[in-house]
Design a protein that fits this description.
Number of helices: 4
Oligomer: single chain
Strand content: under 5%
Shape: flat
Order of helices and strands: HHHH
Largest sheet: none
Length: 121
Amino acid sequence: MSHAAIDSGAGHGSLRTYVTGFFLALILTVIPFGLVMYSDWPTEYIVYGVFAAAVVQILVHLHFFLHLDSSSDQSWNVAAIALTALAIVVVVGGSLWVMIELHYYMQDHAMVTGLLGHALC
């Protein structure tokens, strides 16, 4: 009985790639803490910096730990992740849009409209 190795197409990293990914992830974790704790930048720039570090860290994890790249073996995995990311952007973006619009319309606009209506009568 022969036991043949089955190649599932999943990449296996070496110790070097895992260590590189670990140190990159560590640096990308320390940067936002440093921005928040010790930066004199405006809050808007700090938020952009934290967001950028988070996006780069996601890419580091996908490449170094999940071994996703643009090779033909990984094309379906990359397509699935891209579709998932698009769905998350649509759901989160749509939810934020709805909440912002609700906040705008639920403010005192009804009271101001009502007062103007009574004043004109």
